[in-house]
From TrEMBL:
PANTHER family: G-PROTEIN COUPLED RECEPTOR (PTHR24237), G-PROTEIN COUPLED RECEPTOR 141-RELATED (PTHR24237:SF35). Residues 36-289 form the G-protein coupled receptors family 1 profile domain. The chain crosses the membrane at residues 26-48, 60-82, 102-123, 135-157, 189-213, 234-255, 267-288. This is G-protein coupled receptors family 1 profile domain-containing protein.
Amino acid sequence: MAHYVNKTANQTICFIPSDVANGILIALYVTVIIGGTIGIITMVFLLCKTNTRSVTTTAIINLLVIHGIFILTVPFRIAYYIQGRWIFSFEFCRFVSSMIHIHMYLSFIFYVALLSIRYISYFKQKDKIEFYRKMHSVVASAAVWIIILLVFLPAFYLNYGSDKQKYETCKCFSFQKEIEKPSVLVLNYITIAVVFMVVCILLIVQIFIIMKIMKKLKRAALGHQEFWVQLKSLFFILVMITCFFPYHMFRFYYLSHTNDCSYYNEIFLGITALSCLDLLSFAVQTYFQKVFQHMTCTVKCL
């Protein structure tokens, strides 16, 4: 039986029943835990064999860290959707609820940084952009995380679900009343516009680079390292489009319809969490790249 939300003028129909929505969310987050954990473990082994002075490797390590921190909060989400009520403190609810937003936007920032570094490397015709010493990469990462912990996180957390009186303590992940604040509403619209604009620009640049490489290498492109590097960059853009676009497209509607089936917003947020599977897919892509290049080399040697 569908869940209905009554409104003054008409009736909004939620085509997905709340129990089905809970099932979808549980499935999403279980997938995130399993796939994300396997991806992190696999990437740790792969990174042990790579140059840690590489700026792109440093960006991937930081991406791995933010995925790992977020995954630690996912079991509490699953427990809530299974039990149907929040059994922990309200402050912990705020923390767990805010982490999915923090994870999404920090992942987005690291994706953009990673892709920007690769584009600079390509246009400057350098194989890699590296730090002079390994310690420099550690210092750079530490500086980024200090800024995140001292500036970004406090500013976000202090304004997220800060008014306890507006919410029920036995419920969690429903802080839509914060959107009623004009400053929060404007910030959301700006964020949506920035995400779409940045991803579209990155996609245009990436397609231009791939077309240029294919025009230069032609049939030999599949056996060339440079081509595969750009395919991996395209993969990260596709992750952003697949995982982040649906939420921001729905968000544009939800900002003015916060009372319409609020668990739809949770489902779209759950989709953003699937970005944790990027490292698993990246590792699989790296494996098939090596297999394909080995097969290409074997054919040429025959």
